[in-house]
Amino acid sequence: MRSTRWNFNEVILICAVLVVQAFTGTYGINYGRIADNLPPPESVVTLLKAAKIKNVRIYDADPAVLKAFKGSGIEIIVGLGNEFLKDISMSQDRAVDWVKQKVEPFLPATHISGIAVGNEILGGANMELWEILLPAVKNVYNALERLNLAHKIEVSSPHSEGVFATTFPPSAGAFKESVMPYMRPLLQFFSHINSPFYINAYPFLAYMSDPAHIDLNYALFLKNPGIYDAKTKLHYDNMFEAQIDAAYFALEKIGFDKMEVIVSETGWASKGDESEAGANVKNARTYNLNMRKRLLKRKGTPYRPKMVVKAYIFALFNENSKPGPTSERNFGLFKPDGSIAYDIGFTGLVPSHASSFLASIKVRRQDWFRSLKIVWIRMLCGAMVLIMIS
């Protein structure tokens, strides 16, 4: 009997490990859709599931997308676009109507885990939006409360690096005085509802702005001397962690030392204009490959070693209709046909010659055998549980 019980526990342990490995909770991706050549959302869900990506952020609340994610098990953060903030800020009833139309009908089949109210508002050029961001955030949260959804859906608002006066060295991290009248009350509300601080952190943009003085290897997670923060006596061997810790220091200086920092966007362009230093396939692959490895380690930063770093990669696809410099249209990890833009470990997909995108996605042989093995072990788990119960 002792031998049987030990084997049973071993199998249960194996099953638990498999479940943990299936979702790390650190790696997400931004699914932007400013393009005219992207596959339908149903096909994107197939792609994400095959790549084992379970955290997705979109920039709107498109019903077609939310319907496609039904039953997928993928957690999705929807966006309330900047263009809607004024209307939502004016009335809680309008916020309730928005949630009723854009969010509630898709629950719980579609796992909507958050609403991002606006994007990169504070520090941006539109001062009117600075003033209405907090009222819009409050109205959305109160709407969720009224509909008994506040305990299921997080409310947040991602920021750009433009909210900081300084980020180097990390211990010098501080918010701009100009944003403080708006940032402080916003953070007070987020602290009250236990929402994290979302930041769009791009070592690529920092390097591109000053390639003469920033070590490319430092930006790409490659071997380099790194930087030493004399105040904290901490060493940083990559810019990504330094940017996160700068945010932690900025928050701490104004009384929000308990707030978690999550990276809502980070990535590297695979193509750019002549003036956009570092924008090429080699660097994009290096950054995103090392970023994926970094996130899968589930560890913190030098200043916050116990706060596991979480990040949404930008982006799932190249978006050929985005305005601006060439880099803006070349952040994608995947091509529109579902094949990889470059290899960072997502090798489970291969294109075929079928006309349908869904038909073009095949799981490689090794992934098929791995899936079969998981199914077999789970069946064994179930059978042994039945034996033990009987």
TrEMBL record:
Cited Pfam families: Glyco_hydro_17
Catalytic activity: Hydrolysis of (1->3)-beta-D-glucosidic linkages in (1->3)-beta-D-glucans
An annotated Gene Ontology molecular function: glucan endo-1,3-beta-D-glucosidase activity
GO biological process, one term: carbohydrate metabolic process
Domain of life per record: Eukaryota
Signal peptide segment: 1-22
EC nos: 3.2.1.39
Keywords in alphabetical order: Glycosidase, Hydrolase, Signal
InterPro entries listed in its UniProt record: GH, Glyco_hydro_17, Glyco_hydro_17_plant
Family per record: Belongs to the glycosyl hydrolase 17 family.
Protein name: glucan endo-1,3-beta-D-glucosidase
Organism: Perilla frutescens var. hirtella
